Amino acid sequence: MVTPRAVFLFTGNDSYLKDKALEELSSSLLDNSSKELDYKVFYGGDSDMREVLDCAGTIPFLAKKKLIVIKNAEKFAKEEKSRLIAYIKNPINSTCLVLLSDDEDFLLKDDIAEHATVRRFGVLTDRDLNSWIRDLVASTGTGKKILPDAVETLKELQGQDLLSLQQEIEKLIAFVGKRGEISSDDVEEVVGKSIAASAFDLTAAIGENRVDDAMRVISDLVLTGKRHYEIIGLLCWHLKRVMRARILRDKGESDTRIASMLRIPGRHADDFFVQLASLDIGKIRSRMRVLLEADLDLKRTKYDPALILEFAVIRMCLT
Q: Could you tell me if residue 2 is inside a domain?
């Protein structure tokens, strides 16, 4: 049996968590002086396996272990993959080899689990993501906490991209100042400010059956870095606001009061209530079901995310 640190396999599509794990591993093996000489990165599909294995076979210069990282390891050709498997089964213990792959099944069918430390970094479950957000806020050392409804709002607006969530949490910590809690209103003010208009435009285009305009808004959001599942979350967030407005109006609240309670920007208020008038609770729920199905399809199928979102928009236009 090889030592636990001879070979690592990090699989899954969460690059943030994989990078954090790699950073922690690197810090445990190397210091600033040894990183220059004893840390090497290769890329599957671009690097020659002979070069990789030659590097793995040389002794470290300053550190006790050399660290070799192969990114996109699943892209190696079949013959090179065979050489890699042979090395994994008989590694050099003065080298720590780390394989990074988006493919969660990469090499696992080749019986390498007993020869390597395997860690999977897939999309977090909803419960784990909630814990991750709360823990990240707590880890800032500011003594602040994030309220449960703020966690839900943050997920709806920002999606599950952990790097983006970390950046937004840093903004929220600064925004609340001396206050000890981050509320849902804080999240909407900081995170939702720049994208609320896009959510409104997208929902308006869908409500008026303007598929081309809806696709144009989606394309603009994708170009700014939004992922397809984040756009679905954005639509859900906006529809929930519309649902709350519908319920409040049915209870007799004035539009002015509703706009204040839901923090509807003044420049959008008139259009928001025109949109609200065209959507009863049944239609809102129907569209949210479409979005839920699209979100599940993104997670459990290998279909093109763009096609899944496009189909969802078309379905909502027809409801």
A: no
Boundaries of domain holding 175 = 126-190
DSSP helix/strand/coil, 61: coil
**Residue 72 domain flag:** yes
Determine the Cα–Cα distance for residues 203 and 172; give it in Å rounded to an integer: 27
Interhelix angle 228-250/211-223, nearest 10 degrees: 120
Give CA separation, 170 vs 137, 150, 186, in Å. Answer: 8, 14, 12
Coil/strand/helix, residue 100: strand
CA 310/CA 312 separation, integer angstroms? 5
Asked if residue 73 and residue 109 are part of one domain, the reply reads yes
Of 123, 120, 179, 124, the residue nearest 146 (C-alpha): 179
The b-or-e profile of 247-280 (16+ CB within 10 A means b, else e) is ebbeeeeebeebbeebebeeebbeebeebbeebe
Tens digits of per-residue pLDDT, 198-228? 777 888 888 788 888 888 888 888 876 777 8
pLDDT in tens, 251-306: 999 988 888 887 776 666 787 888 888 888 888 899 999 998 998 888 777 678 88
**Of the candidates 65, 102, 68, 63, which has an alpha carbon nearest to the alpha carbon of residue 84?**
68
Q: Residue 282: which residues within 8 A CB-CB, separation 6 or more?
A: none
Is residue 130 assigned to a domain? yes
Provide the residue type at 70 as one letter: I
* Same domain membership, residue 212 and residue 179: no
